[in-house]
User: What shape does this take?
Amino acid sequence: MKPFDHRKYRPAPAVPIEDRQWPNRRIERAPVWASVDLRDGNQALLEPMTVEQKLRLWDLLVELGFKQIEVGFPSASGYDHDFLRRLIDEDRIPGDVTVQVLVQARRHLIERTFESLAGVRRAIVHVYNSTSTVQRERVFAMDREGIQALAVEGARMVRDEAARYPETDWVFQYSPESFSQTEPDYVLEVVDAVTEVWQPTRDAPCIINLPATVEHATPNVFADQVEFFCRHVQRREAMIVSLHTHNDRGTAVAAAELGLLAGADRVEGTLLGNGERTGNTDLVTMAMNLYSQGVDPELDLSNPDAIIGVYSECTNLPVHPRHPWVGELVYTAFSGSHQDAIAKCLKQQQGDEPWQVAYLPIDPQDLGRDYQAVIRVNSQSGKGGSAFVLERDFGLSIPRWMQVELAGLVQAESERIAGEVDSRTIHRLFREHFLAADASPRLEGYRMDRSGGVDTVEARIREGNVERVIRGEGEGALSAFIDAWQRHSGQALSVVHYQEHAIGEGTGAEAAAYVQLGIDGRRFAGAAMEHDTAAAPMMAVMAALTRARQQDGQAA
Ligand code: KIV
Ligand code: ZN
Assistant: This one.
């Protein structure tokens, strides 16, 4: 074989199910969530959490609304034991929250586990053993009967040990580890044998947890496995079927979602997907996926930045800026067409109508993010990005023909600095190019007379040290001023585009005027912002004339 040779691998076998029902279903409510951050997540860390860190993460999980939390492997880890004891001894477990502990199907470990739980009000004892072909054959060197006997023995020991602590309300959980790589008929044999021991009932169900310990197939195969299991397992009505998917192929969330369609009731996973190798099912993503479909996720994820803060503090892991739903960049559009579309949709979105904004699957404000972060401008952005920023931050609604020209300036600036152009820079570019504060000719003052059938203007103009009065008439300030300028200069001016709007309200309001002039066959844009609404168009014309002069000067 060559060094990189796909023939080394085999595809996942198909599941013997033909009339699968899961593709026709929808997820209509949240599953029972079980966090395994403090166990599976913790065991994957370079530096496992200290007791103090675990307490911090515990508090967060409780605050978010998790009702089942796996706290560790107390028989195998001193930290986990001490942490569990603090939870119990310091009465930190709220009445509606159940702790879960993991243990292998081995007597001394099971005994120690129950000892470490002494005094707890309610607990899930989670026992597991590996059932997959490769584990049976290559790790344990045991046949199917031998592995099943281990599981049954584990189930018996858990049952018997629990009976020694009758003051606790016990729930038993069994995981056929590597479920997804175990023959479907064999999983049934093992689980049926375990529940035969436990004799769960509808009122006192056990939990059967189905792990994709290593994800090795497309999520539809996992869903087939779960549906096959749910249909054929004995005592289905007396068990909560739980999923525990890992993310080796990058589809742990998808597998868990399809597994729910296939009949499961509960999902184990971690915040932001921390866990062995590529991680566990990311419960934040999965819950937000539900939320974005109009389903109550039954977890309060409204402050992801707080979640990220505690997560990073406890795991020492960063969160990717493009992490689904919560990454720093996920509500940011760089591309011009996206920016355009977002700006249009946001403008039209009404308070309580269903969310319909292109490129934004949810309202960022739901997660405490604001629109400030939505649009950022770089050299890939088109006219829409800069226009959006000017309107959002400065109240300037610049017309399309000016947007095109401004976009060129912004792009050049972005290329020059090789990066993002911030809102203040865009505003500066706009002012420098279109407002012409040092306009020459400059409008020093004016008088308008609107008493006759036509408007007349007398404008005082300064060019260098020379001040003169020019006169013209027309309909409105703009046309009267253009007339005055033409008479004075002999230049042929035409107004190609003109637009104005108010900025702000009341006495503090300003008029923004944008004009594009045709001057001797060429086009020049200018803008002005003035409290005086008649002066604004005249100032905008002066700005455009100044730009024409500057360009002629540069060309000369
Ligand atoms: O991934 C896994 O199979 C596990 C089990 C112990 C449930 O973490
Ligand atoms: Zn796991």
Remarks:
- Residues 535-555 form the longest helix (21 residues).
- Residues 238 and 329 are 45 Å apart (CA to CA).
- Residues 336-434 form one domain.
